[in-house]
Amino acid sequence: MVTAPDVPTVVVVMGVAGSGKSTVGALLARRLALPFLEADDLHPAANRAKMAAGRPLDDEDRRPWLTALSDWIKEATDSGRGGVVACSALKHPYRDQFRRAGAGVWFLHLALDPLIARQRVQRRTGHFMRARLEESQYAALEPLRPDEPGTTVDAGATPQAIVDEAVKALSAAR
Known about the structure:
Rossmann fold, five-stranded parallel sheet
């Protein structure tokens, strides 16, 4: 088992809707003995309503959400408790904002075939994200750049296999 001092302060599990961010993030947090945050919980009600109506968010809609996430990352790093957050983090500027919020932020990009992602979202119940928004997420997605700390994994693998691969990548990053 990897302990919290062996990992970055905050791991951002990123990807489009349906990639498994929440499932993988919760498992990874448990494995690393770190607190877990589901970033969707920080969306303002207006954002949730917009997505539930099938309308994609724009950068202005995302601004308060990104600020709340950055505040959480800053508190997690300043306090030394760290954490794992499941967050789409689709664009490079968003990830830069998170990296400015706290030292040691590391990204786990769950890459997934668009058809599989759409099928997964269609099967979900009780979530505000609609399958028809999947296309807008792929259009906005900017994969990790070489200067960004993290790794990209195939989100078609089992959640446990993804967590195992993430732990290996985290260890190698140290």
